[in-house]
């Protein structure tokens, strides 16, 4: 027995007539009569007393009517919820964001997305980029923002930011006022870095080692504003992305280009290759891709 049969049965019971039920369902009366006979044969019961043109439910018919109502209503609820989901009226997103990325890029993006899809709820999980990448891989989050490159065998991604790191020093620092600074010139400087769970932590140390020195790390933090504040307090130097530097009070620190080598900073939206993506997640990808743009 299927939903269609139950719908036919309920319509006959409500109208107490095969003919009227057939008219309302836009099918022929022989079709609906055959459906009811098949149901009676399948269950081995009589569902209707037939007395001329008028029919009434039997005891078995009353039981079937109660259960069929519940099943058809449940089916209709499921259909409505799936339709809502397909039309992006409902859904839930779990998004992993590094703290400095979230505050700089996403308040406006999330606001516009919510305006377009008010019934899609968003859960933000703030962690360093390395943790975000691990959470997307494990399935704890649906999608996340990570520092590229990532493992292309595991993740799909698109890049939306491509820039460089700048050097932050105290205004009284010996390098303040320079047009640019060579990375090797920082060999004896105290560094203020992001914590180890941030991709930039490893990236900066690796670039320094390749330049011929091991950086002397004096402080670590998860907040870019605290890092810049430590530089302003003359506790060390820092390397931060260009976008973040635009939000820093330049009267408190000197911000200089870093070259030879410059250190790239590229952000991407990442998601697992082999995992099903909900309609809400797919729309988030398309929506943000269009809003943020895509960098080569």
From TrEMBL:
InterPro entries: HTH-type_LysR_regulators (IPR050950), LysR_HTH_N (IPR000847), LysR_subst-bd (IPR005119), WH-like_DNA-bd_sf (IPR036388), WH_DNA-bd_sf (IPR036390). Residues 1-58 form the HTH lysR-type domain. Keywords: DNA-binding, Transcription, Transcription regulation. It comes from the Bacteria. Signal peptide: none annotated. Belongs to the LysR transcriptional regulatory family. This is LysR family transcriptional regulator. It comes from Paenibacillus ihbetae. The lineage of its organism: Bacteria, Bacillati, Bacillota, Bacilli, Bacillales.
């Amino acid at each position: 027995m299927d939903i269609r049969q139950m719908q036919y049965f309920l319509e006959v019971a409500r109208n107490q007539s095969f003919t009227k039920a057939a008219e309302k369902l836009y099918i022929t009366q022989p079709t609906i009569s055959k459906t009811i006979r098949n149901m009676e044969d399948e269950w081995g019961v009589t569902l209707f007393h037939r007395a001329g043109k008028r029919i009434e439910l039997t005891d078995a018919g009353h039981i079937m009517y109660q259960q069929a109502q519940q099943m058809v209503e449940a089916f209709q609820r499921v259909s409505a919820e799936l339709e809502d989901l397909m039309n992006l009226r409902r859904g839930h997103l779990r998004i992993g964001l590094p703290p400095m990325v979230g505050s700089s890029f996403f308040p406006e993006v999330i606001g516009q997305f919510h305006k377009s899809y008010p019934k899609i709820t968003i859960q933000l999980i703030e962690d360093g980029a390395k943790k975000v990448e691990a959470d997307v891989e494990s399935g704890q989050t649906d999608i996340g923002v990570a520092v590229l490159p990532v493992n292309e065998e595991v993740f799909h991604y698109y890049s939306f930011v491509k820039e460089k790191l700048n050097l932050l020093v105290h205004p009284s620092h010996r390098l303040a006022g320079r047009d640019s600074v060579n990375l090797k010139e920082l060999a004896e400087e105290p560094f203020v870095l992001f914590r180890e769970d941030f991709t930039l932590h490893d990236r900066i140390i690796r670039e320094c080692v390749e330049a011929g020195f091991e950086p002397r790390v004096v402080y670590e933090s998860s907040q870019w504003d605290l890092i810049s504040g430590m530089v302003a307090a003359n506790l060390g130097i820092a390397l931060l992305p260009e976008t973040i530097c635009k939000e820093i009070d330049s009267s408190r620190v000197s911000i200089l280009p870093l070259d030879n080598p410059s250190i790239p900073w590229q952000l991407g939206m990442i998601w697992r290759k082999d995992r099903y993506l909900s309609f809400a997640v797919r729309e988030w990808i398309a929506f943000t891709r269009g809003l943020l743009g895509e960098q080569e």
